Amino acid sequence: MQTSSAKRIVFFILFLSSLNTFAQDSIYVRKTINKLTSTFFWGRGYTKEGMNKAADFLSTEYKKIGLLSINGNYKQDFSFPVNTFPGKMLVEINDRKLIPGKDFIINNESPTTNKKADLIKIDSTKFQASPDLEVILKDKLTWSVATEASEKTTIELNKKTVKEIPKTIRVDIESKLIPDFKASNIYGFVKGTKYPDSILMITAHYDHLGGMGAETYFPGANDNAAGVATLLSLARYYSKNPQPYSIGFICFAGEEAGLLGSRYFTENPLVPLNKIKFLINLDLVGTGESGMTVVNASLYPKAFALLNEINTEQKLISKINPRGKAANSDHYFFTEKGVPAFFFYTQGGISAYHDVFDKPETLPLTEYNDLFKLIVSFNKRIVQ
């Protein structure tokens, strides 16, 4: 029988060991974010095989971690249309060549365009060259993904870097609509020791915006390399520490194109949705100076109260803000199917979002360790 002093020593050693584990996984998370935001994955999007390369990388990581697969395959394949920009991306204003992503972006539905024209001022922010080519001045440039192409090209200019009044424009842009772009959700799990048919699910989307032309891509460090890296670190933990319930992990494709991967999964589930006890979706979790927000907090008040109780006990996140139902990430279609789900995102730090400045070197990962501990503790108590 151990003395109280001996017990305290053992506890302290275990505590230091756990801190070291978190520190080691912080290094793993940072390396993973750096890798996923590299030029090799080209924004994990629709040109240069970016998304497919990321899917292969994640499948390999799942296998290294020791996650189980269904029928020997981590991938759930599906397809959807997407408008891509694989080549030329030239815009000149007043004979000055602009920098893609910094000086301008193009509307994501824009077609292939090659034209030189004078610009007519429509109002203080809008200029028009022709019915199918216009220029808009913007305070901030943010891009997204389109699943169709239009007949009109819109060029958005950054008012902070393009200060002259636009009078002439030259455009040479290559666009390609892919009607059946092939993508994959990546699913793996740790089998429960006592209730293997009941599942706690952790999800994050791994796709981002990809490239705008042959030389410019959107790294997507906070959105959502940080969420994927946190998911993988949790998978490493649970692989070494199996729980009574199974723990599932899904990295979704197609989120930026309209939550397409998670919608496909809920319509073609690899596991019965009624077996999922709770789902936590991670997106934009690379900061945390100003706390975090929980979407669906008002739908599941008992679960939200438990989350706050744990956070107060362990003194983790500075503030947890409640939010109601919102179709703003991959938790949404699970909620619509009756699966209890929270969507976590952090706040503070960098303001980069859907632009070329969402880079790993500016991502603070302020609350990674605390968020990790909060999720592990919540999963342990939500099923009690």
TrEMBL record:
Pfam families: Peptidase_M28. SUPFAM superfamilies: Zn-dependent exopeptidases. The keyword Signal applies. Residues 1-23 form the signal peptide. The keyword Signal applies. Residues 185-376 form the Peptidase M28 domain. Keywords: Signal. This is M28 family metallopeptidase. The lineage of its organism: Bacteria, Pseudomonadati, Bacteroidota, Sphingobacteriia, Sphingobacteriales.
